[in-house]
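Write out structure tokens for LysR family transcriptional regulator.
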Amino acid sequence: MELRQIQYFLQLYWDCNMTKSSKALFISQQGLSKSISKLEEELGFLLFQRSSIGVVPTESADKLYDSFKKVQDSFHELEREIAHVRQERVLKIIAPTGFALATDIDEFAEYGRLYPEFETRYTEESKEEMIQDLMKGKGDVAFMLAPIPNEFQSHQIVGREPLYVVMNSNHSLAGKERITIRDLEGESLLLLNIYESYHTWIFRQADAMGISYSVYSQADMNEYLSIMSAGKGLIGFSSKRIYQYYNFPEIVFLPFFLEDGSQMYIETHLVTLRGIFLDQATLHYINYEKEKHGAIFPETDSRTASNSFGGLV
């Protein structure tokens, strides 16, 4: 049994889809299938039930998952320790798309100036990519939007801001002081792709209330306001801070409220993979963020750090 086979098993266990897993692993579907089959042959039992719609882990796979996960985590810990001994340790920080634009200062340049002995590397990714990279050991810490999956440990809330409804100033709703969930009735929505979990939660509430709406399309951060400004009568949901350096005077941001009068907030947590060994570089950065944000957000709110949706105030 090879470590590579364990990594392939874990990826397929998470995805339950050969196509998706092979892309994530940068190998062919045939190569992935062959490796999994060889592992099953070595073990003497099936790990996945195959069908035309995907694969399903067997009971045997469920029993082995925790042990295989520990093997992979231990290997990643060993890699970090070796890098530390070689003095080549680079702390890998992952953040959601637009995170740097939403901060008032250059978050990472400041850390580098204060602590030049700790080298860092910063990347921005979608939440799905972030989760995968943390699972594979390609990231050490991440700034993750709530809700936080159970596989991750929240160490500190680092940001909380209102979720706004975005529209062109010529939209019929633009004159309102605030938008409620009932205002979605009959509207065509343009979805910003970095807020998928928020959209899902809002739509569940709207569906439960019998509110009718339609989804026009989905867009990334850089094209979102350009489409809105075209005046197609669309509305959507977004942070206001990530667009603080953009110039779209025809766009308005209105606060969004739910039926009970609560306002929805976008909450960002500093997280690591739960249960892993945290080396000196990782702990130093976590403590730095705690000292920086702890007075503002003294709690790590269990509502938003769990699978249940939070961020309602």
